[in-house]
TrEMBL record, chain B:
Belongs to the binding-protein-dependent transport system permease family. LivHM subfamily. GO terms for molecular function: transmembrane transporter activity. The keyword Lipid biosynthesis does not apply. The chain crosses the membrane at residues 12-30, 37-57, 63-84, 96-115, 135-159, 191-213, 225-249, 261-280. Its main location: membrane. Keywords: Amino-acid transport, Cell membrane, Membrane, Transmembrane, Transmembrane helix, Transport. This is Branched-chain amino acid ABC transporter permease. It comes from the Bacteria. One of its GO terms (biological process) is amino acid transport. One of its GO terms (cellular component) is plasma membrane. The keyword Transport applies.
From TrEMBL, chain C:
Keywords: Cell membrane, Membrane, Transmembrane, Transmembrane helix. It is a multi-pass membrane protein. It comes from the Bacteria. The lineage of its organism: Bacteria, Bacillati, Candidatus Sysuimicrobiota, Candidatus Sysuimicrobiia, Candidatus Sysuimicrobiales. The chain crosses the membrane at residues 21-39, 45-64, 71-91, 97-118, 173-192, 223-247, 259-279, 299-321. Its main location: membrane. It is found in: Cell membrane. This is Branched-chain amino acid ABC transporter permease. The keyword Hydrolase does not apply. One of its GO terms (cellular component) is plasma membrane. PANTHER family: HIGH-AFFINITY BRANCHED-CHAIN AMINO ACID TRANSPORT PROTEIN BRAE, HIGH-AFFINITY BRANCHED-CHAIN AMINO ACID TRANSPORT SYSTEM PERMEASE.
């Protein structure tokens, strides 16, 4: 399987705090990789580094073999990295359709083609009936879906999902889990951060564990679940 | 040499008053995240309040000062309560537009009330001076400077030592966390805006024996206040003191040794450079 | 697959996509109606020119301020460049005013490119503060560089050549020139409402980080928006210079003028097709009425209206009216 993403000794420092500490990470095409760790472990910071929202303090990032360590965020989106934001960032005064359209324009410069593509994504996300509603009128569940929809509009090779299931009721959560599977089945590589163990264990092919910015474990869901370091990290220090 | 010292002394004295204007603006920005575009107009309100008491009640302008501070404080609290509190959660351009609007309304009300002619207070000490060796001191500016020092010192005491001060600093650091600790941030905002208005009005009263009062000079002082706070770091109250003195001395030196017609441009250029190169100000680091 | 639509959301009754044609019709009808204004209200022709010209300049401001969300309080720079370039080329070099206006537009674009390139890294209120500083510095230079600008005493225009046989000092001619400019500004706004570039600008306005994550280069798009905005404003400035006939740096480069353009757009509705036009009508008209009762230039109406709008119609009057109609 060709490698989609690789980081080498990826590091980010905030003042005196090392939020991401020399992390070696790799994801292969078509994988779902779960990224877990206690609050403040550095998961979102890791996403921000990979997507280009934050500059690295050290280390390197490769996407499909190409170094992107210092590429600006918009360039990485062009290359095929899509992301959602844990603190959701809809375009509040645009409609749901327009939110997705903005992303759709990247691959479809003509308005007509972009609209058609956006409509397809909305349908897939179950958001069609809200197409004309303003994004700020959506509920939390709706906004989380909109986050995914907007990232999907880029037709990304790699999709970074930051807690898109947390906070949903069980029915909604199951819908989103199903969606994530379908996205993967279309060939998109997914890295997802999630606190709900049932979800992450069920979905991930492989899991990487961070605490205090360091990678402390990596493996299949059963391997990670039985790893004493991981259990300690969740129970002990925090 | 004597001339140089004289110019610096004049600059420091004016700079003290600029510091008062800047401190208010910085405090408001620190706590409320509002860039107050009406700040210079508050100063003009202070000037005309002083004029009003002086001409109607024939009170000495320096004795009027407590009254002016009180009027400014009350106006600030009322404005905050009715015009700024409702838009606390609105996007930031809303507060910019609101304060621009408040400035326009206040300055035009002054225009209706006091007319278009520039006014000045003439007192014994407006033109009187005292001497220290070869250096001349204007009496009015000296009194103003002493008051400035007293006010800045008092404010520092309030901020450091009192519960109110602690609440203000907590709200400036993180409003939501302060709210959780049981601090009434709504009240803090009202008070801070009141203090800001009162300080600007005080500066107006202090400058009045020196300068003409005219309803339309507000924006000039709003700009000076911006320069002072950006030099000192937006939201950095102590930095505003340094920023004020720096602006005062720069203006004074610039007017004496460089062309006086470009004087304001130098302040603005410095302002722009600091904004671009050292957004946290010349003194200290940004909190964010 | 189980569909779990997010509950509790209320779809708007009218989608914004596809609203383009109806607003285009509206704009065309409005422009057509306005062509009758000089014949219908010959004694209010000066007021008409002012409203239409300011509507055009406020729409031009709105490309950057409303659609892109970059609050500029320094647009008077472009009004001044437009007016002064045109006037100085006429006075010193005998260049026809329409060519002068083109040169002014070029100069404005160059200034905007430098200004934007340097200050677009500033976000939020800092960009607004920087724009004031740039504009004030320009005013001070224009005021003092008397050899170039004629200085604080100002300049007055000589007799102008006929433009296609028309007298440019005739208010009727000025009205139609302003109307053409307004048409141009509305066409740009209409295009922004539906084009890829327009959506890029709106995305940047709504959330710059999210926009970047969708492949948008904010600095580049902001600079383009600034160039378009500056070019249109500059044309308005050239026309404003002809309209006034005599002007000085204090007025042409003033903070008041910059603030007026911004407030017109906001009061009417920033980032909407008709907002700036509505704002210009209300504010110019309102000030005119007030001026009759209180002589002396007054921005009182601007102050009162912006306070009311921020409190009660934060997205501007045109949006509030649209919402009220829908409800
Ligand atoms: N912009 C920032 N400036 C300073 N510190 C930051 C910044 N962003 C994150 N941090 C700090 O870095 C550490 C890692 O934060 P991060 O958001 O990456 O954690 P996380 O694993 O996503 O946590 P959670 O599960 O709560 O979302 C935290 O201590 C956080 O306070
Ligand atoms: Mg996180």
């Amino acid at each position: 399987m060709p490698e989609v993403l690789r980081t080498e000794r990826l590091t980010r420092v905030f003042g005196g705090l090392v939020a991401v500490n020399e992390v070696e990470f790799a994801a292969e095409e078509g994988e779902i990789v779960g990224l877990i760790g206690p609050n403040g472990a550095g998961k979102t910071t890791f996403f921000n580094l990979v997507s280009g929202a934050l500059r690295v303090s050290g280390g390197r990032i490769f996407f499909q073999g190409r170094e992107i360590t210092h590429a600006p965020a918009y360039r990485r989106a062009e290359l095929g990295i899509g992301r959602t934001f844990q603190v959701m960032k809809p375009f509040p005064r645009l409609t749901v359709m327009e939110n997705v359209l903005v992303g759709a324009f990247l691959r479809h410069p003509s308005r007509l083609a972009a609209e058609r593509w956006a409509a397809e994504i909305l349908k897939m996300m179950g958001l069609s009936e809200f197409a004309a509603a303003s994004a700020r009128s959506l509920t939390t569940a709706g906004r989380k879906r909109l986050e995914i929809a907007r990232a999907l509009a880029l037709n990304p090779t790699l999709l970074l999902l930051d807690e898109v299931v947390a906070g949903l009721n069980p029915v909604e959560a199951e819908g989103t889990v199903e969606l994530i599977r379908r996205i993967r089945d279309r060939g998109t590589t997914i890295i997802m951060v999630e606190h709900i163990m049932r979800v992450i264990m069920g979905l991930s092919d492989r899991i990487v564990v961070l605490t205090h910015g360091r990678k402390i474990a990596e493996g299949t869901p059963p391997q990670v679940a039985s790893n004493p370091d991981v259990i300690n990290a969740y129970l002990g220090t925090h | 040499m004597v001339q140089f010292v004289q110019i610096v002394v004049n600059g420091v004295f004016t700079g003290g008053v600029y510091a008062i204007i800047g401190i208010g603006l910085s405090l408001i920005f620190g706590v409320m995240r509002i860039v107050n575009f009406a700040h210079g107009v508050f100063l003009v309100v202070g000037m005309f309040t002083t004029l009003f008491f002086f001409e109607r009640l024939h009170v000495d302008p320096f004795l009027v000062i407590p009254l002016v501070v009180l009027v400014g404080g009350l106006l600030g609290i009322v404005l905050e309560r009715f015009l700024l509190e409702p838009i606390v959660r609105a996007p930031e351009h809303a507060s910019i537009l609101m304060t621009v609007g408040i400035g326009l309304v206040l300055s035009n009300l002054l225009l209706f009330a006091f007319g278009d002619a520039p006014q000045i207070i003439n007192t014994r000490y407006s033109t009187s001076t005292w001497h220290l060796g070869p250096i001349t001191f204007s009496t009015a500016l000296t009194i103003a400077f002493v008051l400035t020092v007293v006010v800045i010192g008092g404010l520092a005491l309030i901020l450091e030592r009192t519960d109110l001060g602690r609440s203000i600093r907590a709200a400036a650091q993180n409003a939501d966390a302060a709210e959780l600790q049981g601090i009434n941030t709504r009240r803090v905002r009202s008070l801070v805006f009141g203090i800001g208005f009162a300080l600007a009005a005080l500066a107006g009263a202090l400058l009045l024996p020196q300068l003409f009062a005219h309803p339309s000079i507000g924006p000039t002082y709003t700009l000076k206040a911006f320069v002072v706070t950006v030099l000192g770091g937006m939201g950095n109250v102590a930095g505003a003191i340094g920023g004020g003195l720096l602006l005062g001395v720069t203006e004074s030196l610039g007017a004496a040794y460089v062309s006086s017609s470009y004087r304001d441009a130098f302040g603005l250029a410095a302002f722009l450079l600091v904004l671009l190169l050292r957004p946290a100000g010349l003194f200290g680091r940004s909190r964010t | 697959m189980r569909r779990t639509p997010p509950s509790g959301s209320h779809p708007a009754t009218r989608p914004r996509i596809g609203a383009g044609t109806s607003s285009l019709t509206g704009a065309l009808v409005l422009l057509a109606l306005l062509t009758f204004y000089p014949a219908a209200f010959p004694s209010f022709i000066t007021l008409g020119v002012t409203i239409v010209l300011f509507a055009a300049m406020a729409s031009a401001w709105d490309v950057l301020g409303g659609w892109t969300g970059q609050l500029s309080l320094g647009h008077a720079v472009f009004v001044g460049i437009g007016a002064y370039t045109m006037a100085l080329l006429v006075l010193r070099n005998g260049v026809a005013p329409w060519w002068g206006a083109m040169v002014g537009m070029g100069a404005s674009v160059v200034v905007a490119a430098m200004w934007g390139g340097v200050t677009f890294r500033l976000r939020g209120p800092y960009f607004a503060l920087a724009s004031i500083a740039v504009a004030e510095m320009t005013r001070i230079v224009a005021n003092n560089w008397a050899r170039l600008t004629g200085g604080a005493e100002g300049i007055s225009l000589p007799t102008l050549p006929l433009f296609l046989g028309l007298d440019l000092f005739s208010r009727r001619v000025e009205f139609y020139m302003a109307l053409i400019l307004l048409g141009l500004a509305l066409a740009v706004a209409w295009w922004l409402q539906r084009s890829r570039f327009g959506y890029h600008l709106q995305a940047i306005r709504e959330d710059e980080d999210a926009a970047m994550a969708l492949g948008i280069n904010p600095t580049r798009e902001k600079v383009w928006a600034f160039l378009a905005s500056a070019a249109l404003t500059s044309l308005g400035g050239s026309l404003y210079g002809i309209f006034l006939g005599f002007f000085e740096p204090r007025g042409m480069f003033s903070l008041d003028l910059s603030v007026q353009l911004a407030l017109m757009a906001y009061i009417g509705g920033a980032g909407t097709l008709f907002g700036p036009l509505i704002g210009a009508g209300l504010l110019v008209g309102g000030s005119e009425v007030l001026r009759i009762y209180f002589p002396g230039k007054s921005l009182f109406v601007y102050g009162v209206l912006i306070i009311l709008v921020v409190l009660f119609a934060p997205d501007g009057l045109s949006t509030a009216v649209r919402r009220a109609r829908r409800a």
